[in-house]
UniProtKB/TrEMBL annotation:
Residues 1-21 form the signal peptide. Its main location: membrane. One of its GO terms (molecular function) is protein-phosphocysteine-sugar phosphotransferase activity. PANTHER family: FRUCTOSE-LIKE PERMEASE, FRUCTOSE-LIKE PERMEASE IIC COMPONENT 2. This is PTS system, fructose subfamily, IIC subunit.
């Protein structure tokens, strides 16, 4: 069997050089007697995608690209990186050079002690796409939230006794005029974040051609004037639109379009068809029922918070507990999505003074509890942890301090019942305290560092958030420590020590 080559081609525009380089490499490789498969990353997105088996069986990987291509999936394989032009001009010489000069990318087997952190399986599912959209939306949430908050503070006009007597902007002054415009800018940001979210959820499903139709569809499903309703479909409407558009575009990409129209398929035909279809679906099928349902749900949630003093604390504790339950799993992600949805939709509907921050703030307060809790436990109860566990705990600290809850997974896998109980209780404490103290998380890192990196409104600047999160971390650490026995290596060392004179 001949040697096998896999390649990736791409260019800046994604229309011409991408496909010319791919065709040139394929023809040259076949003439030279090699088996070959080429993945193209054009304007339509990735096509003829290399599978893990393709990469595993390859003797050589060539990246012929004018844009950045992440090489991480080629770890352990001979890799040669070049531009698209050399592949187009003389692909046979390029292949010969690649076999001579390719170097193995990365090294396999990176481990911490005997424990491998995280999973090595790539899982793409519903929540993966949703979280991808959220990651693009967060910067806009932070920017718009900060601007809106600054302008809103200026709008509260007080009397001589410090009582708020009026809300509004005095645009006859320069400062009042500026703050009025900044308030408008913040509102625009919150109005755009839902279409932005939908666009990148659809992009996660079907690449670039899905972005424009999803953004337009999400804007429409959230526009009461277009729907003829009192409220828009909000976050849930955007999710529905994004998935309809994503899989519609995915289906359109599989159509064997005539070669003569291929250059305009990703930039004209697919966006036009997908936008037309999603517009009709939103207008006549999903727009009205989703908007009515979402309006009722958020109105009920807001009334619950207003009429029952303990409701925010209970909701915060439940959301926090969900974060600590499966550390990045479906329940964890469901809580994150729910918190984000409630925050963004109520912010859009009721404005900054009426937005519901409770679920979103609680989930972010809880997100670092599990990894930082197990790290603190190894510090407080050193004799109850083995050397390998202490090394893994250091890695968990590094992940937890930047808000990555998955850092505690190795400990949960080793002792699920004790660890899940400790994580859930500590995370519920953090979430409940954040809700009880009235913290409002706009965006940033969900760890103690979040008080400095991001923006959080809190009764005592910087301190309230840190105290809430640290209370959860300490709770988890104590529960873990008190429920463990002495580690075997420490027990052996203790038995071997001299008793002394």
């Amino acid at each position: 069997m001949g040697r096998r080559i896999v390649a990736v081609t791409a260019c800046a525009a994604g229309i011409a050089h991408t496909y010319m380089a791919a065709e040139s490499i394929e023809q040259a490789a076949k003439r030279m007697g090699y088996e070959v498969k080429v993945e193209t990353n054009g304007a339509i997105g990735a096509e003829n995608v290399l599978t893990p088996q393709d990469i595993e069986d390859a003797d050589l990987v060539i990246i012929a690209s004018d844009i950045n291509i992440d090489p991480i999936r080629f770890t352990g394989k001979p890799l040669f990186v070049t531009k698209s032009i050399p592949a187009i001009e003389d692909a046979e010489s390029l292949i010969e050079r690649a076999f001579d000069e390719a170097e193995v990318f990365g090294k396999k087997g990176t481990k911490i002690g005997r424990i491998q952190i995280g999973s090595d399986k790539e899982k793409v599912n519903f929540l993966t796409h949703v979280m991808s959209g959220i990651s693009y939306m967060v910067p806009m949430v932070i920017a718009a939230g900060l601007i809106l908050t600054i302008a809103n503070l200026y709008a509260f006009q007080r009397d001589d006794l410090g009582r708020i007597v009026k809300w509004g902007f005095d645009n006859t002054t320069q400062m009042g005029y500026l703050m009025e415009k900044l308030f408008y800018v913040g509102q625009v940001g919150f109005k755009l974040m839902i279409p932005l979210f939908a666009g990148f959820v659809a992009n996660s499903i079907a690449d670039k051609p899905a972005i424009a139709p999803a953004m337009i569809g999400a804007y429409l499903v959230n526009d009461p004037e277009f729907l003829g309703t009192e409220a828009g479909g909000g976050f849930i409407g955007a999710i529905v639109v994004a998935f309809i558009v994503g899989y519609l575009v995915k289906a359109l990409k599989r159509i064997p379009w005539p070669k003569i129209v291929l250059p305009i398929v990703p930039i004209m035909i697919i966006p036009f068809l997908a936008t037309s279809v999603i517009t009709l679906i939103v207008l006549f099928i999903i727009g009205n029922p989703i908007s009515v349902g979402m309006d009722a749900m958020y109105q009920g949630l807001t009334d619950l918070n207003k009429n029952f003093a303990g409701a925010p604390i209970l909701i915060g504790a439940i959301c926090g507990a969900m974060i600590g339950f499966d550390l990045g799993g479906p329940i964890n992600k469901t809580a994150l999505v729910f918190g984000t949805a409630v925050f963004t939709d109520t912010m859009t509907k009721y404005g900054i003074t009426g937005a519901n921050f409770v679920p979103g703030t609680a989930t972010q307060a809880a997100i670092s509890i599990a990894p930082l809790g197990v790290w603190l436990a190894t510090m407080l109860f050193r004799k109850k942890f083995s050397k390998d566990e202490k090394i893994a705990a250091s890695a968990a600290f590094g992940m937890g301090i930047v808000g990555v809850t998955e850092g505690a997974i190795p400990f949960v896998a080793a002792n699920p019942i004790r660890m899940i109980f400790s994580n859930v209780v500590g995370s519920a404490v953090a979430g409940g305290l954040a809700a009880a103290t009235g913290c409002k998380f706009y965006g940033g890192i969900g760890s103690p560092l979040g008080t400095f990196i991001g923006y959080i409104e809190q009764p005592i600047p910087f301190l309230t958030w840190i105290l809430c999160v640290c209370a959860g971390i300490l709770t988890t650490a104590l529960l873990i420590g008190f429920s463990r026995n002495q580690a075997p290596d420490h027990a052996v060392a203790t038995q071997g020590e001299p008793t002394g004179a």
